[in-house]
Amino acid sequence: MDDYIPFLRPFFANNQKKVLQVWQEQIPLVNKRRSILKNPNLEPNVVPFSYIDSLLDLKVDGRDSVPTDPELVTLCSELINGGIDTTSTVIEWAMARIIDNPNI
Asked: Domain of 14?
């Protein structure tokens, strides 16, 4: 919310610190996946392909480089949040319809 209404930023300072801390904790996971792809024998029980694998070599028009580790973490977070938000919205809508019309 503080991104849209900047004068609220002081009220969300603690949340921002927590988000940045979690974000920094996820970067080593990107590096670990990258090392597993380079040497699959490191962990033989790992899933052979994942969403992040498609992002590691992503070429974006107008950019000369692949996404940075923080950008990769952000893209993965957006995918997960998008799936959760869609599902929770559908459940909320369905419950509202059931309450509105219990005969369904």
From this structure: 6-100
